[in-house]
Specification:
This protein is of the alpha/beta class. It is built from 16 helices and ten strands. It has a ten-stranded mixed sheet with strand order 7-6-5-4-3-2-1-8-9-10.
Length: about 425
């Protein structure tokens, strides 16, 4: 168990790499979803599938996913991750079947499951199932009602907050472990403390902030039936990226994290667990990255579409990044392929000099490659759109990170950081 897990809190979800160093996140209903969130980057992928045909994973693909995932892992504990679209559309019987396959192939090893959901379909039956089977649930909430409902709408454009907040209460009542995922967008980024305090008052203890970054499509994307821009090419020299109206602005995203960090570090260390801050402390401690976007390379967080097709990344579900089919290739063969290796190494190899010379490169490693579509100050392609926000945040938290590492090295509680941060000049 690493330093972060000992001193703060071990996140039993998709952030922790498996013993063999890769994850395969399943999408049992593909991009199908009962909501119509403005900023969703995955819903438009329905353009890649035949119109009118249900987007559902077959029993054959499901069994192969579970069997091969277990056989490809070396450790005593294996976690299955379910996402979408909206995975609860697959229904409870689908997940009961998944559990039966897990039991069939477990070979004595312990099995865990995590589910990312918009929460609107969660009812008492779902809560009982998730509780009885010890699922970790990631619940998407963008803040209080007046912030959440700006972009997170139902299929008819109506509000969703009421259903989601009710789901949070039901899940907590049934003792389900919940990690709230917040999509930081053009609207809620301006209200960091209101958002953070709302979650604290609601009893949320585990938070994760994910920036919304989407561009208008180019001709190639439009011809594919897409409404958002795909990944940039390595030599893209985009000087005028046109951002979608819900995309967060870089400097504001950095300020958002700073404001919440300053509140957290003086009041909530050890009581509220913000994954972004844990990843950052892990980077300062030299630990293995807690999320792929802050790692030096990509390629170890693959996805399985409902069809059985495997792709290099959730953000790279495009035909060019298809790696194979789970009924045709073994997972180990796919993960060890040259295509995956090249994809992963490209993140490191294509860093602009501005990044390679950066004092906080170790904390972000250039960020997600899909967001590296702007020019650096010295006119080199491949800079992350959020670079300014990341740099401002990492430089701001440096003193606190060093102080926390000092506490850890002396065997003192990390909670003591709150007293140090509250002191003048702390």
């Amino acid at each position: 168990m690493n330093m972060m897990q000992n001193m703060l809190r071990a996140e039993a979800g998709p952030e922790n790499p498996s013993p063999t160093g890769f994850h395969l996140m399943a999408k049992p209903v593909g991009p199908d979803c009962n909501l119509g969130c403005d900023y969703c980057f995955y819903r438009e992928k329905t353009a890649y599938f035949p119109a009118g045909k249900p987007l559902r994973m077959s029993d054959e693909v499901l069994e192969a996913y579970i069997r091969d995932s277990i056989r490809s892992q070396l450790g005593p504990h294996i976690v299955f991750e379910w996402q979408g679209g909206e995975p609860t559309l697959a229904g409870l019987d689908f997940f009961r079947k998944a559990l039966s396959f897990q039991k069939k192939y477990s070979d004595g090893r312990s099995i865990g499951n995590s589910l990312q959901t918009n929460g609107t379909l969660i009812d008492e039956a779902w809560c009982r199932f998730l509780s009885e089977n010890h699922f970790l649930v990631g619940l998407s909430i963008d803040g209080p009602e007046w912030l959440h409902d700006v972009f997170r709408k139902d299929a008819c454009g109506g509000p969703t907050f009421g259903k989601v907040f009710k789901a949070l209460g039901m899940l907590r009542k049934h003792g389900v472990e919940v990690n709230v995922l917040v999509a930081v967008n053009r609207s809620n980024v301006c209200h960091p403390l209101e958002l953070y305090c709302f979650f604290k008052e609601a009893g949320v203890r585990y938070l994760q902030f994910i920036p919304v970054v989407e561009r208008e499509p180019d001709t190639r994307d439009r011809e594919s039936g897409l409404h958002l821009a795909g990944p940039p090419s390595h030599d893209s020299r985009n000087t005028q990226a046109v951002m979608m109206p819900w995309s967060v602005e870089p400097e504001l995203y950095g300020e958002f994290l700073i404001r919440i960090f300053d509140e957290w570090v003086t009041r909530d260390v050890g009581d509220v667990f913000v994954m972004n801050f844990e990843w950052t402390l892990g980077a300062w401690a030299g630990e293995r990255p807690g999320m792929c976007h802050v790692g030096s390379r990509c390629g170890r967080n693959l996805i399985l579409e409902h069809t059985g097709d495997v792709f290099a990344c959730d953000h790279f579900m495009y035909p060019a990044y298809r790696l194979g089919h789970i009924l045709e290739k073994k997972l180990t063969e796919i993960v060890q392929s040259g295509q995956v290796l090249s994809f992963g190494m490209a993140k490191e190899k294509t860093l602009p000099k501005y990044c390679r010379d950066c004092a906080v490169l170790f904390a972000c490693h250039g960020g997600c490659p899909k967001h590296r579509f702007v020019l650096s100050p010295d006119n080199e392609p491949g800079l992350n759109y959020l670079c300014l926000g990341f740099k401002n945040f990492f430089h701001h938290v440096r003193p606190a990170m060093e102080q926390m590492l000092g506490l850890i090295s002396r065997g003192q509680p990390v909670r003591n950081m709150m007293n140090m941060a509250a002191m003048p000049g702390g």
